[in-house]
Amino acid sequence: MARGPESHDLMLLLGPVSYLDCLVFCVFLAPQLIWHVGFFETVWCVLQALPFFSVKLPVGLMRERYFLPPENQSLFVQKASSFEDFVIRCVRYAFEHVPAKIGRVFFSKEVALPFMQFRLLRHGYFRCPVPWREHREESFHGIWLIKNPEEKPDFVLFYAHGGGFSMGSSYFYLEFLLTWLSELEALGYSNPAIFALEYTLVPDAAFPTQLNEAVRGYEHVLKVVQDPSLVCVSGDSAGATLILSLLLHLGSQEANGIGYGRRLPVPALAVLISPWVTLVSTRHRNTVSDYLDVKQLHQYGMQFAGGKMPEDEPLVSPGCCKDMSLWKRSSPSKGIYITYGTEEVFASEIEAFIGTVQETVVVKSEAAVGGIHAWPVASLFLSSNRLGFFDAPFNVFGYCVCSLMVIMNAGTRCEQGEER
């Protein structure tokens, strides 16, 4: 299906982040860190990072990129640009060494919104080309993005952001979601919409608060679109965990004592980006390429479980569910699509999960060779090729388009990716 010029302009709206963008981001970030974290703690964090940024980062970057022979470089370093490699090394340091309460400010509404507005202005846009609005109810809140707010949407993507349950926000994901909205429009939907769930972060609340919010948010989406066959649920990392937990709840005959109210129908499709399927697993392995750290991840996972339920409870940690009849009841009518990178911490666990459920559930997956965690999200900001830079394209938008063609009964066969 041909892409119209309007949606193409939207998809390539702001281009990759530049060094100027990074500088401006820091300008927006600094006062928020001082306000929310404190001046002395912020300064102390900066001082602790100086040896890394002044010595370890430049030395390691130069050595691994320009002095090691290609066969000794990681697959990610071989394929990434210098800027992409630089940013991922910084994120790796931050994930391992910077407290979550500081990382939380990085992705907050107070920083993300002015930064996006700056990027819009820098590219000649005085307002966002697609209307978006906050939606708040007592039991949940989130963000609606819709082409024409005056009309009923003909397709809704329900999205949950990542961030280890302790950081991240839908506001930080706005550009990513706008890009996805343009893909839905290019596919042929006249009024596509996205509802991004803004769930409560740890330590403000632990499980089951986030699942309660996801269920209420999903129920709200169903009330708006009035047809579960027009709903796709999606998320990355911890957000994908929440989506899997939501699906298991929808498929449960009982609410396992938690009590979420009446049963709701399953959606048409689930698209998961680097899902954290099991909170704590011996299959999680640190890699030289990925920015995640297993020890830190497991700590976040335990905080999310909150001691109220064991970390191997399926609704808390969906990968622990071995009840295939429950997975069958929980599966969306068009199945589950999973995309991940072979170099990410979760790779082995994701592959084990696919192997467990694929005989019962329709699962399609794509493993990007050399890919790291949640690259479809990160690449939108970092890669000069906005559709991904790997030899086997790590492009979740293309995968979602192919799956949605099936939903629309377009009769178009998509041969991208590996079907398992």
What structural keywords apply?
alpha/beta; 15 helices; 45% helix; disordered N terminus; disordered C terminus
Architecture overview:
The two termini are 26 Å apart. The longest helix is centred in the N-terminal third of the chain and has 29 residues, at 39-67. The chain has 420 residues and is α/β, with parallel strands linked by helices. The chain is globular, with a radius of gyration of 21 Å. It has helices at residues 5-11, 19-36, 39-67, 75-79, 82-97, 100-106, 109-122, 174-187, 209-225, 238-251, 294-305, 324-330, 347-357, 375-382, 396-407, and strands at residues 132-137, 140-146, 155-160, 192-197, 231-236, 269-273, 336-341, 363-368, 418-419. It contains 15 helices and 9 strands. Helix 8 links the parallel strand 3 and strand 4. Strands 1-2-4-3-5-6-7-8-9 form a 9-stranded mixed sheet, sandwiched between helices. Helix 1 (5-11) runs antiparallel to helix 8 and helix 2 (19-36) packs antiparallel against helix 7 (109-122).
